[in-house]
From TrEMBL:
InterPro entries: DSBA-like_thioredoxin_dom, GST_Kappa/NadH, Thioredoxin-like_sf. Signal peptide: none annotated. Gene3D superfamilies: Glutaredoxin. Residues 222-411 form the DSBA-like thioredoxin domain. It comes from the Bacteria. This is DsbA family protein. It comes from Temperatibacter marinus. GO terms for molecular function: oxidoreductase activity.
Length: 418
């Protein structure tokens, strides 16, 4: 486990000055907007037609990656369904700030991919030999030659030039799609621009539905939910998760953690841009309110957690986190001001004259650090993350990501609690 709490690199980015915070918020709001996406689609389609090009999709495959071993199984079905040219490139895993826990990620990718594979009609991932990977690449339109490392060098350079860092990625005309989880976005775009051979049929890889129609029965279940006040994906998942817990009857325990940037792990520009674009795209697809962003990194997050700690004593901690995330990611409220925090408190019925005396309390710091260590203990490190426990406190399943609540729901149903 990497202890980034002692690292100082990038610490200045964890609490930007007033102008930088404002400018960064404006930029991230703009790049994730539906207007920006539609403009990208229109311009790229115009250029594609002008150049007399077909629909060319690049796929970047990473060895020793469970998500890539799932994604590669979709290539043939995609080619059969869509009028596309599919070119496969080989890449290596990135480390550093783009992937701060590479060893944990490799292990977890196989665990997670094995759980979701059947839901998409795919085989559980199995690590392939170098020869097998190169043979697959040769069959998908690539002109790559040489050894595995030589091919990976070419793939890494192209991936970086096009603006990404991860494996299991699909790229089509200026937009990225991560693995099996984002193929429905790619399919939707290909359909809109006339590349679907069978448009009357549903998507090959639709986003799974969240099962939550009945109250939980049998032994009591507990759902631990690890969240952060500066996480776009937490902003998408938070209210959904609370609603899910209420509807299914599981006991929800919210366990907030500090954002990675405030733990000394600054996000690269490349990673930050992708996350905000992807989160906005996911929100639109699920009809979740989202979009106007005012960055709460640094002092606003600290004060937010101070007020959360206090709000819990009034049985309003859950509502406070929701209101804070809504302010930062939906309403564009500047939580770096007392007026912004006052609005958050007012929205959940908390008295600001009382709240203001709790802004600088630090009791929450030990709790959040304990939550972070808990995550690492069971093999996760990012948010939002889930951990489902049975009546005896034994782990039933763990999952990382706002796009895994459906998996939690499926497990509850599968073991007979729904």
């Amino acid at each position: 486990m990497t202890d980034y709490t002692t690292q100082q690199s990038g610490a200045s980015k964890s609490n930007p000055d007033r102008f930088t915070r404002w400018l960064q918020s404006k930029i991230l709001t703009s790049i994730g907007s539906e207007k920006a996406q539609k403009k990208l689609w229109a311009n790229s389609e115009k250029k594609r037609l002008k150049d007399n090009r077909g629909h060319v999709v690049y796929y970047f495959h990473q060895s020793q990656d469970g998500y890539s071993d799932l994604a590669v199984q979709t290539l043939k079905p995609l080619l059969e369904r869509y009028d596309i040219e599919l070119i496969m490139h080989l890449v290596t895993a990135e480390c550093g700030y783009n992937a701060p826990e590479p060893d944990l990620l490799e292990k977890y990718s196989y665990t997670d991919a094995s759980l979701i594979a059947p839901c998409f009609g795919l085989q559980s991932p199995q690590s392939m030999s170098d020869e097998a990977v190169m043979a697959i690449q040769d069959s998908y339109g690539s002109a790559a030659q040489g050894s595995l490392s030589e091919r990976q060098d070419v793939g890494n350079q192209l991936r970086a030039r096009l603006g990404h860092y991860s494996g299991a990625m699909f790229y089509y005309e200026g937009e990225w799609y991560w693995g099996i989880d984002r193929l429905y976005h790619l399919e939707n775009r290909l359909r809109l621009f006339g590349a679907d051979k069978y448009p009357e049929q549903g998507f090959l890889y639709p986003r799974p539905e969240i099962i939550q129609d009945q109250a939980a029965k049998g032994p009591s279940l507990t759902l631990e939910f690890y969240a952060s006040l500066r996480s776009p994906y937490t902003a998408l998942a938070y209210d959904q998760t609370v609603k899910f817990a209420r509807k299914t009857g599981v006991n929800l325990i919210i366990k907030p953690v500090l954002p990675m940037v405030m733990r000394g792990v600054p996000a690269t520009r490349q990673k930050g841009m992708y996350i905000f674009k992807d989160a906005a795209r996911e929100a639109r697809a699920q009809d979740i309110p989202y979009g106007k962003f005012y960055d709460p990194i640094g002092e606003p997050v600290k004060k937010g957690y101070s007020l959360y700690h206090w709000a819990k004593t009034h049985d309003k901690g859950e509502q406070f986190l929701s209101a804070f995330l809504n302010a930062a990611f939906v309403e564009g409220i500047n939580t770096n001001t007392n007026n912004g925090l006052k609005t958050v408190c007012k929205n959940v019925g908390l008295d600001w004259s009382d709240a203001i005396s709790h802004l600088d309390e630090i009791e929450w710091t030990e709790v959040l650090e304990s939550n972070r260590l808990d995550m690492y203990e069971f093999g996760l490190w990012g948010v939002p993350s889930y951990r489902l426990l049975d009546e005896a406190g034994n782990e039933v399943i763990k999952a990382w990501g706002q796009d895994r609540l459906w998996l939690i729901a499926k497990f509850i149903s599968k073991i007979g609690y729904l």
